[in-house]
Amino acid sequence: MQPGPLPHTADEAGQDRPAWLATLSLKRVATALALAFVVAVAINPLFVTSFPVVLGRMLVVAMLLLLAFTLAGHWQPRWLPRWLAQVLAIVLVAPLATLAVYLPSTGGSLTAILRHEGLVWGVLLITGTALLIAPVFALGTLYRERDAQARNQQLRFELEKSILERQALDSRLSLLHAQIEPHFLFNTLANVQALVESGSPQAAPVLRSLIAYLRAAMPSLDAADASLGNEIRLVRAYLELMQMRMPDRLRFAIHVAPELEPLRFPSMALLTLVENAIRHAIDPSEQGGFVEVGAERDAASGEVRVWVGDSGAGMGDKVLPGTGIVNLRERIAAFFGPAARLELLEKPPHGLRAQIVFDAPPADAP
Amino acid sequence: MNRPTALIADDEPLLRERLRTLLGRLWPELDVVAQARNGREAIALFDLHAPQVVFLDVHMPGLNGIEAARAVARRAELVFVTAYERYAVQAFEQGAIDYLVKPFDEPRLADTVQRLKSRLALPTPPARDTLDAVLETLSSELKRRAGTEAKAHLQWIRASVGSSVRLIPVEQVVYLRADEKYTLVVWEGGEALIRKTIRELADELDPSRFAQIHRSVIVNLHQVAQVNRGLNESAEVQLKGRRETLPVSRSYLHLFRQM
Questions:
Q1: How far apart are CA A343 and CA B223, in angstroms?
Q2: How close does chain A come to B136, measured CA to CA in Å?
Q3: pTM here?
């Protein structure tokens, strides 16, 4: 396999250790030797040879089996599961390894071993115990490997989770920095000033909207009151202020089912979409247009859809999405989970609709 | 002696009205001959009335105040009205162009009125050589900030989904594959057929992100997990978190050669 053109995921890079020794740890060698020692002590009474010789043979067989196990683990053919390859390797290598340790005692003659009844018994005994013990050891190792893999995966999940949490925190911090657009604020204040100076009765309701907007848009780290209802109140105050500023150019409507208002909702998310709609559909147009805000639960899927539609000219193919939209996409995923999404739709003949789609159980109270 | 004349251009009616009221108090002889709601109207009304003074809001729909000023050029005294645009204020300062920052108070407008009066009293007001340059800089700055400037490459792919058209950000596209007369777009949120051909898309997409790897396949390089090389100069692309693979034909194999 050739490496791809881009950096690989972390887990692939992390396994770049010397190839076939990758899984042969000191701990495994020690375990195999200890097992061999126990077996040697157990079967020693059956042998006429001295204990050190039995132990020596047992240790060599154990090491050869471990080597076979490790190599078979590295082999990884497509047609044979790894664990089966490893167990098969042990079964095949056990008699061969035992024969091999007996060879020096007969000066390297295989026929001499087979003719000597005691030696044949010895070979059969060691092979037999090896065949009994080694697969158990192998399966134990395999089980531990699986366990380690599961732990690895767990760690990866946690890493991903912490990355998401950090992103959410980042976007919240950036929200604290610039929630209220100064251009909007000063223009609105200029209008309030005009109303007050001329003694207009409109001044009081406009100030009420401005206060509602400022209160909702003030930095707040308290996520508990981030509900769809609060967000709708913010958006309504914003749109009322914009309409006071451009009465002949902005029309708006808000339709939200009351039972959706208690739903958890990231603060300023809907406002970002409404500001975008104003920027793209109202600001550039001499005739102006309309902005529609709505929230509904899809009867079929049960998903909640919160949307902002406008009457603008839509989006050019090559117009870069604003940073607001890019950040919002990440915030929504961090807030509602990966199934939530921000969709942009064009409604013929014209107009853009941006919608946030997320899953929320119907009885989700704050 | 003729009364001095003025034009007010602002898209927000309350602000137009306030400026007119204040001017009536501070400069009673001034005749506000017309009010415009956008840049296009401002130019038309200027051509009709030829006022000596023009108050221009920077932010207006359609044609903005800067563009309108470029059309009026040096045929009138200009006063810009703006809210919080620091870059604009800086440019006006440097170009010695008169401006008001919203919300402004009466004494500030009184200063402006004084300056305008003294300039109008001169037989020929001194020319502002830097005016055109400042306006040109501001004009491009405003376009940049509006974010409506088109990029060189495709940013969105339009795909019909039901009765509406879905705008798919190109960074979410995994790959595109020719499907008879159409092209299949596979993105992180689903699949759709579009009418654009692979050839058109290959021309329009950003080549640093997308690569054509087969006569009928374009892949988002950020979505590639690895490239598996097969026998006989063939290869296939494996995608991140996806089961399907994409063919790399021999003529495109060089794309992955140095990697």
A1: 20
A2: 19
A3: 0.68
